Each structure stands twice: as C-alpha cells, then as structure tokens.
Amino acid sequence: MLAERRHQLILRALRSGGPAAVTDLSEQLGVSAATIRRDLVKLEEDGLLTRVHGGAVADEGDQPFAEVAEVRVSEKDAIAARAAAMVADGQSVLLDIGTTAYRLARQLHGRRLTVITSNLVVYEELADDEGIELVLLGGMVRREYRSLVGFLTEDNLRQLHADWLFLGTSGVRPGGQVMDTTVVEVPVKRAMIKAADKVVLLADAAKFPGTGMARVCGPEDLDVVVTNAPVDPATRSSLEEAGVEVAVAGEAET
C-alpha cells in the first residue's frame, strides 16, 4: 500500500473513531507497527494529528463551518473589533472564508464600504445592509464550509482590487509561514493576496502553530497580524524581520 493511501486511512480512522493505538492501526492496515510509527511522525509534522503514548489522535483539521463557528467566539470578536478599526469609510474590503472573517463582517454594519467575499456567511450577514456595496465572488460552492472556490473565483479576483484583505488561516509556523488544511482553498487565498493593497492575517492564539499541510504565503506577503494573545518569540521575530506589524487585540495602539 502506498504511503499516501495509508495516511488517508489513518486520518479517516482517527477522525471517525477517535484516538487509536499503533497496534490497532497496524492490524487495520495490514502493515508493521514500525511503518505506522513512521506514518504518524510524518502526519504530525504536517499538522494533521498529535502523537500520544502508544498511538495518535486527529487534530481538528478542516472542520465544517457550523462546528468551528461555536469555538473561541470571544477571542474572534476581539480580533474582529481590532481589525474593523483599521478600515476607513469609503474603502474596499476583501474578506476570506472562515469564522473570524464572519465575526469581522458583523463589525462592519452601518459602515460605508465595499465588501468583496467568497464567504457565503459574510454575504448572508451583510446582504440587507444598504450602506455596504457587496460583491459576491463566483465559484463552486463548498456547502459545509460555506465558501466558493475554484478557477471562477480566482478569475473574478483577477478583475478586482481591494484596499484591505482580511485573511484567515489554520496555522502559522514559527518561521511566519501561513498554512491551511484545505488544498482547494489555497489558490483562492493567493489570488486574494494579489488583489489587495494591504494584507491582514486574523489569527487567534490557537493558530500558533495551529495546523495545516498547505502553504498559503510567507511573512513577506503580510502587512499586519491581528491576534488575541502575545505571539511566541520565534514567530514574532520572523514576522517583525519581514516588516509585519503584530497587533494584539485589547492592547493600546501605538
């Protein structure tokens, strides 16, 4: 069995059945315990699981929107409030997929703005706000994740420009690399970065280092990181060396 197929089966087993022992995975897949241990090391390096004594447990990974929306709401609201304060009336704002972008959309009611998004929940939140010019990007619908993706979304972005992009992530590596768990979302995120003057990463404390096997961009592509807690020294150093401002929600602006 190819390693890639084993990895898929291991993750499926962990996500459906919870934590599993090396011996159980070895029996299920018909390979040696040593092979399973090597697979677990690789999957942990990719941010897809956590090894525990004698086995492993799956990380959150690419969870449906409804599940993630109920997690760390107060932290996301603090980040959203800090991010909303950066935007001036009359400007254009590009909002990424994800729940923190949705919390930010809730902060934009009553503003005179243009909002561009592939996030269906952002669209639903702002659809009745007549003060906001709302642009919904086209694309294939990912129903459980409430987003639009694909070449149509990317083509739309090539025709547009925004003053601000507020970008989500599943993890930020110590070197400042922005990661994602979902490969299909990465080209859209990269197209958003190209379409914006200023790129702001929204990342709560759980995103350092978070998860993700697919690289979205490096710190050189960011202007600001907004978070809710102090960033670990290695990551903060990498960001600041690249000229990225780190803004912590709740701290006074300087």
UniProtKB/TrEMBL annotation:
Domain HTH deoR-type, residue spans: 3-58
Keyword terms, alphabetized: DNA-binding, Transcription, Transcription regulation
Record-linked Pfam families: DeoRC, HTH_DeoR
Domain of life: Bacteria
InterPro entries from the UniProt entry: ArsR-like_HTH, Carb_Metab_HTH_regulators, DeoR-like_C, DeoR_HTH, NagB/RpiA_transferase-like, Tscrpt_reg_HTH_DeoR_CS, Tscrpt_reg_HTH_GntR, WH-like_DNA-bd_sf
SMART domains in alphabetical order: DeoRC, HTH_DEOR, HTH_GNTR
Keyword presence, Transcription regulation: yes
SUPFAM superfamilies (alphabetical): NagB/RpiA/CoA transferase-like (SSF100950), Winged helix' DNA-binding domain (SSF46785)
GO function terms (MF aspect): DNA binding
Keyword Transcription regulation included in the entry's annotation: yes
CDD domains reported for this sequence: HTH_ARSR (cd00090)
Protein name: DeoR/GlpR family DNA-binding transcription regulator
Species this chain originates from: Streptomyces gibsoniae
